Amino acid sequence: METENFYLDILDNLCDGIYFVDTERRITFWNKAAERISGYKKEEIIGKNCQSNLLNHIDQEGSPLCLLGCPLYKSILDGQRREAEVFLRHKDGQRIPVRIVIIPMEKAGVITGAIEIFTPNSPVVYDDNLVEHLSNLAMNDQLTGTPNRRKLSSCLEYRLLEFNTFSSSFCVIFLDLDNFGEFNNRHGHELGDLVLKTISKTVTQNIRTPDLFGRWGGEEFLGIFEISHACDGKNIAEKLRMLIERSEVRNGQERLFVTASLGVATVRKDDTPDSIVDRADRMMYRSKQKGKNCFTSDVDL
Fold it and tell me: Which of the residues 24, 83, 219, 248 is marked catalytic?
């Protein structure tokens, strides 16, 4: 114990920020440099989960790493050392560019957690609102404000990693608005854009925090949803179908409605990001063939 305390005292007084997490990503050590660089005292951090977004790392391309691709979590899963350049959010709100090194910790051949070392990468700090704006431009659809295809694809890769490691099941729902080209031709693209924004807002306000729903392209949307049972995806799809059918936009005194065809694909052991999206897409086309305004699930086939 004395030897362990000796080494912890050395780490506590190094110039680089250092923290430890266990396999649940709960922070167990936070040194003085980490306090100085981040603004968070150890009393505010120890015992918290790093995915609670206190530091809210964003990479150089604007991806929110705590949600879509945490390198620390990946190192816990595969035992690989990683390095990256990211923006850390200071307690006061500004963004600090840091270089991080992540080293998995092992005991008797079993991974017990990981160490992250972070060092300021530049004397310059960045306004958090500016960085958040750039992140939104990179990862969110500009019309609807929902996650774009890039962000959805990153999340999907992350969910597949979790599934293959912890069997955390999920489903993908591919959604296409019915007869949307005709709607645009009849009512104009301005009302068509309003429909896309209204549908996006309706769905995102009615899903759980761990789930993600965004615009895949055009009038196509994609959702990634945590599930416990294979039938859960069907229940979610029916809820989305109903919400969309009952949403409306107004053109003067005229009330306008749209419907959607949906396809549900439940994750399988051999899935890749492309294969599960392709399967959900094929299920959606089956819904089109059945008459639209319905869903089709691969668990029924």
Answer: 219
